[in-house]
Structure formats: structure tokens, C-alpha cells
Amino acid sequence: VYDLVAHREVAARSAEGVLTIPESFGPCEGRVFMITERAIAQVRVSAPKTAAPGEDIAVEVTVLGDNDRPIDAIVPVRIDLIDPSGRAAEFSGYYGAKNGTARLTATLAPNDVPGLWRIHVRELASGRTADAYMRVSAGE
User: Fold this and answer.
1) Which of the ends of the chain has fewer CB neighbours closer than 10 A, N or C?
2) Cβ pair 59, 48 in contact under 8 A
3) Nearest-5° Cα angle at 11, 5 to 16
């Protein structure tokens, strides 16, 4: 069980087919919980090693359970494509990893900054992160 507001795992008990989440709520307080069959163990991100301005790049994020298989849920993720100057590119944002997988196709602009780009992913249930790197060549 994960608290999607606090981005953390929550202790829960299961007995006789009933799941109990021992959380206390103050006045006007609420939370959003995500319940999965398996615990989230890691996040993987894959992207091309090199790219050129004007090119489409495919980014794939996989949220894996403790059995090394994709989580059977729609897991919220934040994907940031960060250029060498530290700025997030146009396709950065929030996505849903359906059945543990999110796929993003981003088109590099002709005037995007050349150099080493970082693809940073934060899975928003447990807070786990992963990175991939891509070298963008100078435009012609």
C-alpha cells in the first residue's frame, strides 16, 4: 500500500480477506492510496544513447515489483528530460505507467542544446528514481 500524496509505502495488515490501513486523519484531511499485490522494488528507464536535433526519441520507464516483473497497476511517474544547462525539455511531465510501463516519444527541437542530456524518472508511489543519459549532437 502506497500513500500517493506522501510518496511512501504505508504499513497495512491483511486478515481474513480484509485489508486494514492503520492511518489517522485530522479534520478535512485526506489521502490517496494505491494498493498493489507486490511491493515496488525498482524503476528502470531506457532511452537512446545518442540523438540528433529534429529526431524522435523513445523513452521507456518500467516500474518493477519485488519479483522483477512490471507492477500490475497504473503507477504515476514524473519523467524529466533535462538538457545540459539543467532545464527540463518540452516533453517533461507526469505520466501513468500502465501495467508498470510508460512509453514516451519526444521530438528534439532543431535548436535543442547539444551535449549530455539526463532522463530523470521519479515513480510517485514509493518515491524511487532512475536515470538514463543521452548525448545530443550539434545541429547542422
Assistant:
1) C
2) no
3) 120
